[in-house]
Amino acid sequence: MTAAATPAIRLAVLDDHPLFRQGLRHILQDLPGVASVTEAGEFADLLAQCREQVPDILLLDLQMPNVDGLAAAELLLAEFPELKIIVLSMFSADKFVTQMMKLGARSYLPKDATQDELADAITEVLATGYHFTPRISRALMRNAQRPTPPPVMEISAMTQFTPREQEVLRFICEGLTASKIADELCISRRTVEGHWQKLLEKTGASNVAGLVIFAAKHGFIEL
């Protein structure tokens, strides 16, 4: 992570385990470009901090004593839609991953993620708005292929995909970032982001999770 790419980053941590929270704060403070790291052990404390100054990224635990992570994220995003949430959780079941990503989380990492993995996630979320991993992709695809999936977008837009858009969509579903897709296709990241935006427009999806669900539901990709 470079200071030039992520200047004056404001981070926050919501976790009810003091040792984990404080250790994470020390790790985050040493990352280039980080201007401040605030921490809270309870939702009410974090909410008060956000009302003073909204952080760029919140690292959110799902298991809290007074409010679960899903409810906390819903309340926070309703009041602070610009807040970018990265989930850090011990829970890896598909239902948790899909719920949080469909709600609007920007990434979902296990609590045993390495320092480099966390730094990469923060960098990518700040640069592109998300950090998508193969684990997230698989969870969304499995959820989309269940017998009683949620309503999905119309398939008519599928016939409008260009060959390049189809390639980009496949790589998105594999969990590749815009930078990595650009490397694979030997094009610029800006060009990839242009195709990405077109895919969102054509499918009616609001985020990466929606794109993966669309592709899996309509058989465009296989598990």
Task: Give a short synopsis of this structure.
This protein has 223 residues and is an alpha/beta fold. It has 10 helices and 5 strands; from the N terminus they run E-H-E-H-E-H-E-H-E-H-H-H-H-H-H. It has 2 domains: 9-131, Rossmann fold (3-Layer(aba) Sandwich), CATH 3.40.50.2300; 142-217, Arc Repressor Mutant, subunit A (Orthogonal Bundle), CATH 1.10.10.
Number of helices: 10
Silhouette: globular
Q: Whole-number radius of gyration?
A: 18 Å
Structural class: alpha/beta
Major sheet strand order: 2-1-3-4-5
* CATH architectural grouping of the largest domain: 3-Layer(aba) Sandwich
Low-confidence stretches: 2-6, 149-155
Classified by CATH, the class of the largest domain is Alpha Beta
What is the CATH fold-level name of the largest domain?
Rossmann fold
* Counted beta strands: 5
The tally of structural domains comes to 2
**Estimated share of beta-strand residues:** 5-15%
H and E string: EHEHEHEHEHHHHHH
Q: What is the percent of helical residues?
A: 40-55%
Mean pLDDT: 84
Pfam families: GerE (PF00196), Response_reg (PF00072)
Domain Response regulatory: 10-126
Modified residues (4-aspartylphosphate): 61
Domain HTH luxR-type: 154-219
What does this molecule look like?
The chain has 223 residues and is an alpha/beta fold. It has two domains: 123 residues, Response regulator (Rossmann fold), CATH 3.40.50.2300; 76 residues, Winged helix-like DNA-binding domain superfamily/Winged helix DNA-binding domain (Arc Repressor Mutant, subunit A), CATH 1.10.10. It is 50% helix and 12% strand. The protein contains ten helices and five strands. It has a five-stranded parallel sheet with strand order 2-1-3-4-5, sandwiched between helices. β1, α1 and β2 form a beta-alpha-beta unit. It is globular and about 50 Å long. The two termini are 32 Å apart. The relative contact order is 0.11. The N terminus is likely disordered.
